[in-house]
Write a structure and sequence with these properties.
485 residues; mainly alpha; Growth Hormone, Chain: A; 2 strands; globular
Length: 485
């Protein structure tokens, strides 16, 4: 039986470091590979959607559920996964998550119908929800001092770049092989991560934690989010004031209200102990991530369809169009991780939010005859660079002021904010774009109608990131800044 190391909420980082028996770079690689897989699987599917929709008979609206089925279960069970890492141990939860995720990837690759695909994607989301918080927990319980911001910077760079790299890989695999390989590609990554974690990742969990999970709370929040998202997406077929839409939206809000009541008054071991929100740094970081995560998530989706449906790019060319964005994210994350200890979190998030707002306004000027290099390259790279700038500081802000016993929960909350923001923005902006396109269909060319919808989505995204810029004022000034001893 493998030895389990325990820690208490206030154990020193030096004592925690003594539990390692593998080099830092290997532990960081184990965490980053898994996080890369989880984030990759959101964007890698987007480029393949047009081909996948044709083969599995999805409509333009129903195709969103290939993405949303993953994101919703991911977001809904992230909190459960984050708490599981604290209670049962980071190694055990990591291996469970990687197994479920890899197995579901195989199922999605062999899907023969739309229903099978959506079901496999939902299971993938569950695996990702278990896996992702464990990766940040591994980092927080392994690194300390000036090494922690650098480790989080690497983790954030991988997480951010996964979105753009996923678009590149998705295009290459779809264009040169088959869209099914966007799922099969996870298998070698999963096997490698499993072997490395089994051999080198020592178990570590909170000695004082009880082994009870709030499954009821997780089901309530997942059901509530799914109902609200479905209600929004369904407005492409019915009006916002139709009884069907109102029923779904109200049902979702009731479930979310029930979740809050359950957590606050009923649950003996709540999924989200509301005491954690006493940290202004954590609360502010989650609010900002909800906003910027949503805007950036939608960017990949709409640019993918713009490249293929308007500019006529094939999947492989679309993938290469996203490559500069992946590089920009990595550069932004590395710059911010090196500046955090000097500037603190707030200035970096303000700079990133400002750049994102300008980038989205710029990219909203695209037209049916736009050129990639003269009209799209610079604003899209600017948006991607902004992603890299903000993600590392937000990850540090969300985890730096909580007990180590709650590190998994804190990372789960931050990932939940990003995924919920992404799912909501995709549903809302997708509906707005579709409505704008429909209102112009028959009056202008099809390309012009489509572009008008994309323009509206990018304009709203600029508004979202501007709101995020305002919210940055709530971040504590000194968070993340090195202090003299």
């Amino acid at each position: 039986m493998r030895k389990v190391d325990y820690y208490t909420p206030h154990m020193s980082v030096t004592t925690l470091a003594e539990h390692r028996h593998a080099p830092d770079w290997l532990i960081l690689s184990i965490a980053c590979v898994a996080q890369f897989m989880v984030v990759l699987d959101v964007s890698i599917v987007t480029v393949a959607l047009p081909r996948m929709s044709h083969d599995l008979h999805f409509t333009l609206t129903s195709a969103q559920w290939v993405v949303n089925a993953y994101v919703l279960t991911f977001a809904g069970f992230l909190l459960l996964g984050g708490r599981a890492a604290d209670l049962f141990g980071r190694r055990k939860v990591y291996l469970a998550g990687i197994f479920i995720f890899t197995l579901a990837s195989i199922g999605a690759g062999f899907a023969a119908t739309g229903a099978q695909m959506v079901a496999a994607r939902a299971i993938q989301g569950l695996g990702g929800a278990i896996l992702s918080p464990a990766t940040l927990t591994i980092i927080v319980t392994t690194f300390h001092g000036p090494r922690l911001p650098k480790a989080i910077g690497a983790w954030s760079a991988v997480a951010g770049a996964g979105g753009a790299v996923g678009s590149l890989l998705g295009g290459l695999l779809t264009g040169w092989a088959s869209w099914r390989w966007v799922f099969f590609i996870n298998v070698p990554f999963g096997i490698a991560a499993t072997i490395a974690a089994s051999l080198y990742l020592r178990e570590l969990r909170n000695k004082d934690a009880t082994t009870k999970l709030d499954v009821t709370g997780s089901v309530l929040v997942t059901g509530g989010l799914a109902s609200v998202i479905y209600g929004v997406v369904h407005t492409t077929a019915t009006s916002w004031t139709s009884s069907n839409t109102i029923d779904w939206l109200c049902g979702g809000l009731v479930l979310l209200a029930s979740f809050i009541f359950w957590e606050a008054k009923v649950a003996s071991h709540p999924l989200v102990p509301f005491r954690i929100f006493r940290s202004r740094s954590l609360s502010s970081a989650n609010g900002i991530m909800l906003l910027v995560g949503g805007a950036f998530f939608a960017m990949w989706y709409f640019l993918t369809f713009y490249f293929q449906h308007v500019l006529g790019y094939g999947p492989a060319k679309t993938g290469f169009a996203f490559l500069p964005m992946a590089i920009a994210i990595i550069i932004g994350a590395q710059i911010s991780s090196r500046l955090i200890t000097k500037t603190g979190v707030r200035p970096l998030v303000q700079i990133g939010s400002t750049l994102a707002t300008l980038g989205f306004l710029w990219v909203s000027l695209i037209g049916p005859q736009s050129s990639y290099w003269s009209d799209i390259f610079v604003p899209s790279v600017l948006c991607a660079f902004a992603i890299g700038i903000v993600f590392s500081p937000l990850a540090l802000a969300a985890t730096s002021e909580v007990d180590r016993a709650d590190s998994g929960l804190a990372s789960g909350l931050l990932n939940t904010a990003r995924q919920v923001g992404g799912s909501l923005s995709l549903a809302i902006l997708g509906t707005v774009a579709a409505d704008q396109t429909a209102s112009l269909t028959g009056h202008v060319s099809n390309a012009s109608a489509l572009v008008s919808g994309y323009q509206r989505a990018f304009q709203i995204s600029a508004g979202i990131t501007f709101v995020a810029l305002i919210v940055t004022g709530l971040l504590p000034r000194q968070t993340g800044r090195a202090t003299k001893t």
